[in-house]
Amino acid sequence: MKLSVVIPLLNEEPHLEQTLETIRRELAMFEGDYELVLIDDGSSDGTWKLLQKSVNAFGDVRAIRLSRRFGKELAMCAGLERARGDAVVVMDGDLQHPPRLIPEMVRCWEEEDFDIVEGVKQHRGEESSSYRTQTGLYYFLLRSLSGIDLRGASDFKLMDRKVVAAWCQMGERNVFFRGMSAWLGFRRKSLFFDVEQRAGGGSAWSSLGLIRLAINGITSFSSLPVHIITVMGAIFLCFALVLGGNSLVQWFSGEAVTGFTTVNLLLLMIGSMLMIGLGIIGEYIAKIYDEVKGRPRFVIAEIAEPRSAGTESTVGG
């Protein structure tokens, strides 16, 4: 198998056929065998039925249904671990990642010998100002705390087989695909694209979901927040020594009552810093807890494959 295209899907029924038709049209220009590896991340609509229909109608589709919703990152894990191509393209199922870029990705991989060809957002499309502010703040924090610059980065990328093999060796359960693929290194090239209009309506990401993604990305690639707590503790110790000396001077001079407001403010600041510090430490402990449990990252409920590759079956994994 020359090329695999991995697409995680969640409630994509309204536009799934359009998406597959568009991608297959671009892949028709590709000289070599290819497969579409489609992962249903616990959809509650008719996505899985359409995937089964596509498997029966076409010989280039393999479909995987997870037992419940595990999240986009882990759905991509399921696809990457089961992709059979010499190169693997990962992309979204809403056509915001333009399929027309796939032939150029393949050319860069074949002719220029790049191991990773990644799509970089040149124009983010139609986004609200609040969403753009949130993403800008997130990338700034991630770059400042971990040194990884993911501005404009996307999950749309082609990976050579050796890159996929290296990625699959990374066994953490708190998966952050963009950061993990950046951490791997290898020879890479960026292709810029404008984000297309989303097929099938608005984004499924909520503000809470973006915050969780940000926390996962930062804590997965940086321990600096924990060290910041130590620095803040040292700074407050200096303030405490100065304020303690001032309080002693006032006590000896008989004016001890005058620092009451300052003491209250200082107690509120210290209390807030302690709670924030405990929250940051707790986040890292929670990630350690998830890792040491050793549970599988995802569970497969069913796999549908063309009859030439096997039989349609229900498999647990």
Give a structural overview.
- By secondary structure, the protein is an alpha/beta fold.
- The protein has 2 domains: 3-204 and 296-304, Spore Coat Polysaccharide Biosynthesis Protein SpsA, Chain A (Alpha-Beta Complex), CATH 3.90.550; 224-293.
- Helices cover 49% and strands 16% of the residues.
- The protein is built from 10 helices and 8 strands.
- The protein has helices at residues 16-27, 47-57, 72-82, 102-111, 129-146, 161-168, 177-184, 207-221, 224-252, 260-293, and strands at 3-9, 34-40, 61-66, 87-90, 116-123, 153-160, 188-194, 300-304.
- It has an 8-stranded mixed sheet with strand order 7-5-6-4-1-2-3-8, with helices on both faces.
- Strand 2 (34-40), helix 2 (47-57) and strand 3 (61-66) form a beta-alpha-beta unit.
- Helix 5 runs parallel beside helix 8 (207-221) and helix 9 (224-252) packs antiparallel against helix 10 (260-293).
- The longest helix is centred in the last third of the chain and has 34 residues, at 260-293.
- The radius of gyration is 25 Å and the shape is elongated.
Highlighted features:
317 residues; alpha/beta; 2 domains; eight-stranded mixed β-sheet; 10 helices; 8 strands; 16% strand
